[in-house]
Design goal:
This protein has about 350 residues and is of the alpha/beta class. It is about 40% helix and about 15% strand.
């Protein structure tokens, strides 16, 4: 998300109201925590500043792609200054775990805040926010008859209707991993081939590109993350709002397992020099007021039960979510990539 002073000022006001303000009550710096983050949102920075004001622990932030940060931490090994690895997909968390990036965090307090399906079974990482990967459709064309599930997208009845991004995208890999987990590899491969046959165009661009294509009528259906849609629905910018008026959201599998859900998450690194501070920061991000702000900054859903979503996405919060453990998305990732390649999904 593009960073602007106006946006940051507004978010600081939100946090001041939620957390009771700061400024004169800020503590002197008494420690630090080093965060390697694959997330790139202003909302995270505002929360880190709030954490520092409350605790006196300075947050030092390094941002890059998730895989690049995993490689960096691995190469730094015992000399790594990283205390926390944070990223925006369960599949990336799994890759980090496979590279031995995390240590186990034995914390009942953290476990009580995060439902079991959104955290590592051994406490190596914890979900911080969640989003659904959903279907959108052109409002004028309407939702095609008979479309109820992800599996239905492979039906020849929807030939030439689907826009979606490349199979190299981790969000698509995690979606296919969930289908493998539920339906088995054979059915998942047949599904993938069916979806490829139903492409309206060769996969290209990001989720915003799919939204714009559906709104323009270039395709009737698109597969996108829910938070992208909230950037258009009710947007202040007239151009974005006009696009938002031309598509609708559909959450699949509501009569079955529920819509596929993915997470942003974080864990304490194996050689963290400030492990105690790292755990304090994760706990801070899981407080009710922090959860609301952390999620709303990217139009996501809070991961802690009972915390209401904020902003435009709140209008689309009443849906049945798949309870598949997030760790399963990583476990089936390599298999998903192989299926994509055999199916000819670019």
């Amino acid at each position: 998300m593009k960073r602007t002073r106006k946006w940051i000022a507004g978010f600081i006001m939100l946090m001041a109201g939620a957390c009771g303000g700061a400024g004169d009550d800020a503590r002197p710096i008494t420690g630090e925590v080093n965060v390697y983050s694959g997330r790139h949102y202003d909302s995270d920075i505002v929360l880190f500043d709030q954490f520092t004001e409350e605790t006196g622990i300075r947050v030092n932030l390094i941002e890059a792609g998730g895989d690049a940060l995993i490689e960096r931490i691995t190469q730094e090994a015992e000399a790594s200054p990283a205390d926390i690895f944070m990223t925006a997909d369960a599949g990336i968390l799994w890759r980090a775990d496979q590279r031995d990036v995390f240590r186990m965090t034995d914390s009942e307090a953290l476990e009580e805040r995060v439902p079991a399906q959104y955290r590592h079974p051994d406490g190596k990482w914890f979900g911080l926010s969640k989003r659904a990967r959903i279907i959108i459709y052109n409002g004028e064309m309407g939702l095609p008859e008979g479309l109820e599930t992800y599996e239905d997208l492979a039906d020849p009845a929807y030939r030439g209707m689907i826009c979606v991004r490349s199979s190299s995208n981790i969000y698509n890999q995690s979606l296919l991993a969930s289908i493998i987990a539920h339906d088995g590899a054979e059915e998942a491969e047949a599904w993938t081939k069916g979806v490829v046959d139903n492409f309206a165009r060769k996969p290209q661009g990001n989720d915003t590109s799919q939204i714009e294509a559906v709104a323009a009528g270039l395709c009737r259906l698109g597969i996108v993350n829910s938070y992208y849609t909230a950037r258009f629905k009710g947007a202040d910018d007239p151009k974005a709002a006009a696009i938002g008026d031309k598509f609708e959201l559909f959450f699949p599998n509501q009569n079955g397992r529920g819509a596929h859900v993915n997470i942003s998450g974080a864990g304490v690194t194996k050689y963290a020099p400030n492990a105690e501070n790292a755990e304090k920061l994760i706990a801070f991000l899981l407080r009710d007021e922090s959860q609301a702000a952390f999620a709303s900054g990217n139009n996501e859903y809070p991961v802690v039960p009972g915390v209401a979503p904020q902003g435009p996405i709140a209008a689309y919060a009443d849906f049945k979510a798949d309870e598949l453990p997030a760790s399963a998305l990583g476990e089936h990732q390599a298999e998903a990539v192989g299926i994509f390649d055999r199916a000819g999904w670019p």
